[in-house]
Here is the input.
Amino acid sequence: LGSCMTNIGHFRAAGKLLNNITKPLPTKLWVAPPTKMDEAQLIEEGYYSIFGVAGARTEMPGCSLCMGNQARVAPGCTVVSTSTRNFPNRLGQGANVYLASAELAAICSIEGKLPTVEQYLAYMDTINATAADTYRYLNFDELPAFVKSASSVEISDEMKAAAKKLDMG
Here is the structure.
């Protein structure tokens, strides 16, 4: 679960689905947010705790799962991934990779298989009820730590002049 194309709302949705499980996952679930900011916000909102209780393995934010360079699956495994690529052997030798949304990947990890349409829709009913909150973006200009950091950035005269040229061109 995770890629540069998976925004924070998808992690929240997966967390809400995983928060309702009553038995151990029949699968291995790896979670890797795209950025450290996403990771920090998910920790603050309690989703990392949900992932941990569900038995998910959290990876460093970034490209580890998509690239297959940090986390590899056993030979011949079937994987449901939120990655943007599924060419042969990317995640492991002989691995069969199916690309899916974060929500579908979470449901697959709960069910241990691809769900029927009816199963999928039943799970999604719980997400759809809170969609406005679940899928809200991570707006960096609203994060106190980011705003504080950004306010102290000094821009050189050379960079200001270059930016001005771009505005005029």
Q: What stands out?
A: The CA atoms of residues 110 and 168 lie 54 Å apart. The mean pLDDT is 88. The longest strand covers residues 78-81. The two ends are 42 Å apart (CA to CA).
